[in-house]
Structures are given as structure tokens and as C-alpha cells.
Write a structure and sequence with these properties.
Blueprint lengths: L4 E5 L4 H12 L3 E6 L2 H11 L2 E4 L5 H14 L5 E4 L14 H29 L2 E6 L2 H5 L5 H21 L4 E8 L5 H8 L5 H11 L8 H11 L11 E4 L7
Parallel strand pairs: 1-2, 1-4, 2-3, 4-5, 5-6, 6-7
Helix pairs in contact: 1-2, 1-9, 3-4, 4-6
């Protein structure tokens, strides 16, 4: 069991909620940073954590959220960069406005939050950073070209930061979920109309375990990398995909 302070961005629902709940169950004192204060507050109540409103595309908002967490719980010792957003479409149908939004949330958002907590971790000589990537960033994913690029950037950023802070007691790793049954995926499937069952059936058949992942499948991997037991693991990329990708 741990009593360390953990900050989970985008922790109100979906994979982030699963991660926050798992960390809380293992004794971490969890802060959920999310754009949706109502849902974040409800989730925080359920796991005995706290909720802070934060927009990862705004540096001032991120810094204010970190200050609030540290005032209420103490210094951030574990950071899970989970906040993300995507929409499914062919690359040629995307616009620069779309590129900017995907990159600002999925890539630069993680940079902002990391920049806000790493100096303190280094000063204290301890830190765990777990970035939520995606198998889309490892092997590509049709209809997600820009998102795949952003998550590929997260993987490369993780490896480089891991090298830079390795002597400071900080580990940095990436967990890459495969197709996971979340509200975001359900919205996409619902938008597929009559093809919805075909879409989800195709995703399921592609996974050797013949099912979609769940937030509860992803969360234990994150919790392990956030733990003291993972002290000699850094710069690694772990796929949690039911065997969809194995390289």
C-alpha cells in the first residue's frame, strides 16, 4: 500500500477514472484534474480523493491546479498524464484547426503538466510519471493519423525525459492501451449508425483475446509503474491491448 500523492489528468471518466480508482484502492491519495468539475467531483467522492478543475491546454490553469493539489494533499509524487481527445476521420479530411486541438491536448497538455511537477520531484529526489499513450502511437491506426502522431510524440518524449531525470529518483514510462471500451469509443460507435455493430465487431475480432479492453484492464499496469516496486523501470512502453500488438 502507498500513501503517496497521485495526480491523474482527465480522471473523471473512462480510462482515467479506472486509473484513479485503482490508485486509490492501493492507498494513494488521488487528485483528479479534469475539465468537467461535476463528474470529477462525483468520481473523487467515490474513491475518497479530491477534484480540481484543470484545462491542460492552458499553462496557468495547469499551474493553478497543481498548486491546489499541493495545498490540499501535499507535493505531487505521482503524475499520470491521461487527459486526451480525438475524433475519427481520414487524414485528408482534417484541418489545421483539428491538428492544433489534437496536439494541444494530447501532446502539449502532457508537456505542460509534466513541466509543472518535475522540478519539485527532482528537488525531493522521488517521482513517478506515467504517460498514457496508445497503440495508435506505436503501430498507427486508420482514421487517427494526427492522434497517432501525437501519441508517438508522447512515447518519444517519455524516453527522452526518462534519460534526463534518471539520476533524480524519477521514473518515466508510457502505458499504451489498445481498443478500450470507454465513453469516447461508445460515442464514436454510436455515430457510426447502422455500421456500429460492424465497427465494434471488427475491433473485437482483431484482438487475440476477442474482447475490447476496459479501464480496469489498463489501471493495474499504471499502478505498478507508479509504485515503489517499479523503481528500476524507466523509459519503457507497455502495451495493454489483449495481444493486439506484440512488438
Amino acid at each position: 500500500m502507498s500513501n503517496r500523492v497521485a495526480l491523474v489528468t482527465g480522471g473523471a471518466q473512462g480510462i482515467g477514472r479506472g486509473i484513479a480508482a485503482e490508485l486509490a484502492a492501493q492507498g494513494f491519495r488521488v487528485a483528479i484534474a479534469d475539465l468537467n468539475p461535476e463528474t470529477a467531483t462525483q468520481t473523487a467522492k467515490e474513491i475518497n480523493g479530491i477534484a480540481v478543475e484543470a484545462d491542460v491546454t492552458d499553462t496557468a490553469s495547469v499551474e493553478a491546479a497543481v498548486r491546489q493539489v499541493e495545498a490540499e494533499l501535499g507535493p505531487v509524487e505521482v503524475l499520470v498524464n491521461n487527459a486526451g481527445w480525438d475524433d475519427f476521420m481520414p487524414f485528408v479530411a482534417t484541418t489545421e484547426e483539428f491538428w492544433d486541438r489534437v496536439l494541444d491536448i494530447n501532446f502539449k497538455g502532457a508537456l505542460r503538466v509534466t513541466k509543472a511537477v518535475v522540478p519539485g520531484m527532482a528537488e525531493r529526489g522521488f517521482g513517478r510519471i506515467v504517460n498514457i499513450g496508445s497503440d495508435a502511437g506505436r503501430v498507427g491506426s486508420s482514421m487517427e493519423a494526427v492522434y497517432s502522431g501525437a501519441k508517438g510524440g508522447i512515447i518519444a518524449f517519455t524516453k527522452t525525459l526518462a534519460r534526463e531525470v534518471a539520476t533524480k529518483g524519477i521514473t518515466v514510462n508510457t502505458v499504451c492501451p489498445g481498443p478500450t471500451d470507454t465513453p469516447a469509443l461508445r460515442r464514436f460507435i454510436d455515430g457510426s449508425g447502422q455500421d456500429a455493430e460492424k465497427v465494434i465487431g471488427g475491433m473485437t475480432r482483431a484482438v487475440p483475446m476477442k474482447r475490447l479492453g476496459t479501464p480496469e484492464d489498463v489501471a493495474p499496469a499504471v499502478a505498478f509503474l507508479a509504485s515503489d516496486a517499479a523503481r528500476f523501470i524507466t523509459g519503457q512502453t507497455l502495451s495493454v491491448s489483449g495481444g493486439l500488438t506484440m512488438a
